[in-house]
Amino acid sequence: MKILLSILRExxxxxxxxxxxxxALNSLGLAVEEMVIVGTPIEGVVTARIIRMEKHPDAAKxxxxxxxxxxxxxxxxxCGATNMSExxxxxxxxxxxxxxxxxxxxxxxxxxxxxxxxxxxxxxLGLSDESSGLLILPKDTPxxxxxxxxxxxxxxxxxxxxxxxxxxxxWGHLGVAxxxxxxxxxxxxxxxxxxxxxxxxxxxxxxxxxxxxxxSFSITHISGVTVGESPRWVAQRLAHLGMRSIxxxxxxxxxxxxxTNQPNHAYDASVVASFRVRLAHSGETLVxxxxxxxxxxxxxxxxxxxxDDSGVGLAGVMGDLHSEIAPTTTELALExxxxxPDPIRYSAQRHGLRSEASVRFERGTDPNGWSLAAExxxxxxxxxxxxxxxxxxxxxxxxxxxPQSVPVDVSASSVERLLGVRIEVTRIAExxxxxxxxxxxxxxxxxCVVPTWRxxxxxxxxxxxxxxxxxxxxxxxxxxxxxTVHGRLSNMQQRRRALRRVLVGLGLDEAxxxxxxxxxxxxxxxxxxxxxxxxxxxxxxxxxxxxxxxRPGLLxxxxxxxxxxxxxxxxxxxGHVYPKSDQQxxxxxxxxxxxxxxxDVETSLMQWNAIYDALSVxxxxxxxxxxxxxxxxxxxxxxxxxxxxGVVGEIDPVVLDTLGxxxxxxxxxxxxxxxxxxxxxxxxxxxxxxxxxxxxxxxxVMSDEVPAVNLQRALRQAAGKRLxxxxxxxxxxxxxxxxxxxxxxxRLRLQEPEGTLTDSILAEVQxxxxxxxxxxxxxxxx
Amino acid sequence: MxxxxxxxxxxxxxxxxxxxxxxxAASSTEELRTVVSALTGKKGAISSIKSSLGKVSDVEMRKxxxxxxxxxxxxxxxxxxxxxxxxxxxxxxxxxxxxxVDITEVAMSxxxxxxxxRLHLVTQATERxxxxxxGLGFQIAEGPEVETDFxxxxxxxxxxxxxxxxxxxxxFVESDEPGSVVLRTHTSPVQIxxxxxxxxxxxxxxxxxxxxxxTPDATHMxxxxxxxxxxxxx
Lengths: 782, 234
Fold this sequence. Notes:
By secondary structure, chain A is an alpha+beta fold. Helices cover 26% and strands 27% of the residues of chain A. The N and C termini of chain A lie far apart (87 Å). By secondary structure, chain B is α+β, with helices and mostly antiparallel strands.
């Protein structure tokens, strides 16, 4: 929300120092996002008339200008512009002037002839972002004065406020000025309103049919209007506040809204002289001011010309094109109403039309704001229309649905309980009165009436917030609560942090891609889209699906890196996925995915080893269950019985080809909702066994169809409690081994827990291993 | 008894002299080991003197000679030890020299430059913030990112007319009952869940990912992170 210091200072005598005002705004909870100083006059720039111009035979691109700055001294200035003529009044930056861009105007020469200053464009004066030559002022402009003064350019400050939702009143300068006036202890004057001569009574007929939606409606009749340009200050202020100048009538209407937070609309009273407010009929259309034909909904509130029941405005949102003010308009019907916030919001949503008016009605306006708005409107208009007449007896319809002032009591003890500081009841009353709450002290309490411009203040706690703001948050002080619980990470959170350390220790970088996907992102990489949830109102179509896998985001990142000369990166993400469930909420869970471009199945198994070792978790590798989207012969599921807790392997080469990713990509995915929630087994320390150990090497030939782990398991069982470790130390395929089989050589280290291993025991174990191998079709190699 | 010079004395002195020369002449620890074992071994010169002592008839003389033999052995061993240290140092010096690397060159090798991964900036910031609050006696609460209207709005006293509930700011998930499931717009629904599930006293912070229908620009993102806190105690 943009707020101008000039307008605030018209409403109350607050300080002129922008920093002081900014500080006050922040301490009042009206956060200043940005502060821009505009129209600062430049010391040393004066108006000057070009007396004569000459060309120099050796300098074709520049002109010699001789100017008079009103002091009777003829100055010579070289000038590169071409849009000026003799007799023009232009801005002259005299010697010694520092321009807004930091340039210093010094005596400089071309061809040995000095320039005694510089003639300026709007850009050079900081008045515009573009210009096509010198700024030419009206011929009757006095010489030697500041061009800013000559043009009536106000020095001003624009505050961009980041308003909280509750401060509907601060969508007008008046609300901000009220807070500042209270803060600085000065009187709030409000917008300047001239004693406008009331014309003859004239009440244009008004009828409200949809009272619940339109709780109050006023039409003020104004005549003696001449449509034309706005005064410069009006156009300027609107521009600073982000609105375009249209004409004096529309501009006055807009400025009144920005000043008072009362949206209003001026109709040509010769076109619309009687009003009806009703809900739109089914099939009815309206052409709004932006030229669009709107198909109306039966819940849209419509302002109609009562004479023919035709729509003249989508209430609270936008007027219609046909009743727009025309150059010939002389009589106005000024509408100023109070509409219920919700229906206006729904209307604006339905039509994708969020106007300055709808934004204000949505948040809540002051149902009693109409008369000030009308008077201020006429005051502004009077500058361009001296004969303007405000007719007495405006039509005002107030329905029983119109919000009333609410009584709320604030007790000093509640204030103390909530703010932790004792504030005297007199001070509470003083604060609340200063921002327009009618306050009366009653014992320990203040009996208040909430003003109608503060729809957010409905309960005692809301008023206590007001007391806190104006008492000053800095004055409340701060205390850090002395916790009575033990601050710590949960077991799961500690394990998650440990996991992150393992991952960075493996040289892998954390990525955090968007959790939104486009339709097709999942199917393109071989994953199902049957269980996805769609957003009802996505920002863009490409972000309309909630991810069910972390893989698409990381693959996109790999692709992007490969396109930017980082072909081999390893990245991971710990994040949520949101597959559809049969409950109200999705089956949301936390997952880990690691992708390494240039990695292979061994890479991912190394990562899995590191993780299960660090977190003391286990799972079986089940190659018979190839996970979707993975390399069919180089991947496996990580299983716990029937439950799949992850996948390991490589991305399907077809998928990589589709995405244009080069080389292999290793993948490891783990369901952290399972793995992190486990209590790790405590690590046990054991004495080193001092009895001698023996190694036996056994090589088996086994079909490729049987996983090596089956043989390892059989050997483990056969060796029993004497087995200390078992390593697969050689795998051989080729000569001497039948096609479709391979030789697997294991080294078993054996040791008695107590006592010395005898040769006969060793022989026994070896025999048991051979038998165990045979049982699963593995023949001992001779 | 005179400490006279017997033939045994002379033999011993000669054996020690020869031993020292042999030790000093050894040019490697390997050679030294052979020399020493020859000197001090059963067949060594000193041992043979020792075994011939039985023939000395004078008891006192025999005693003295026995002591001298032992001293000679000890001193030879100590000379050998220092020679060994000297030789070892020389031998390792050449091994160490042949091992020489340019450290700066090794520092550029693939293994030495294998870097640690990085945590995302958001994770780094979150962990630091969490640690501050853990130090203040807070615990960390988490909750789902897809929420019901009840937890995201209603339970937080945000009536249906609250502007933040409008389509402009909230991203809704399609559901059987439109508008009932949202991407949480703040971490506050976790407060409700904590109050339902945790017994008081409660000192908790809720960091996490939140969602708003905002067009991305320098100060807005549709997905961003928040942290908030809740204290309930008497």
